[in-house]
Design brief:
By secondary structure, the protein is an alpha+beta fold. The chain has a single domain, classed as Pathogenesis-related Protein p14a. The chain is about 35% helix and about 20% strand. The protein is built from seven helices and six strands; from the N terminus they run ααβααβααββββα. Helix 2 packs parallel to helix 5. The longest helix is centred in the first third of the chain and has 17 residues.
Length: about 200
Amino acid sequence: MSCSPGTGSSGKKTMVRLIALLFALGSGSVRADPCDDLFALINQERDHAGLRPLTRSPTLDQLATEWAKGMASRNSQVHRPLSKALLEKNGWKNLSENIYGPVNDGSARAIVQAWMGSAGHRGNLLRDSSTLGGVGIATTKSGATCAVFNGAAPAPPSHPDNEVAFPGLGIPDLVPKTMRDPAAALPSNSDGRKLNQLGRTNL
């Protein structure tokens, strides 16, 4: 079992045409995309918690799918190294990750229940600052399921209010707000541990 990353409006149009063709050929049932089910259940949990739903991000879908496929090919469970460079490349303020498997029960409900049963993983699904999300599912050679969720928030546009100058030095020395505000959120991995400025996750 696997699913394809989101492809925007053109992908949706293609899917609609495919579904219409299947019905035209007499097929009475169309199998739902497991990633669609998984993402819907995640947003359902956010709704129950009084949080706004995540917007599906094709970039995060691709990120999650690539990592799920990597875990499936290695038949192992390991987190992606979350780095500051990854955030800057994609314009994200933060990035969280949940992983699942490889296990035999690959239903979307089983995946979400496992994540909701862990404080760190639950925190990532219900992170209020996250506005974007993506999921990926892949299968090992033996048929076990691996799944990945990534949540993120876009970085705010660069603005003078986010920087502070040192007057009198004669040079535009600027310090980003996140380096001078202890309360500013830094990215975290699925265990909720803070990343330092070098992007290490094992703190």
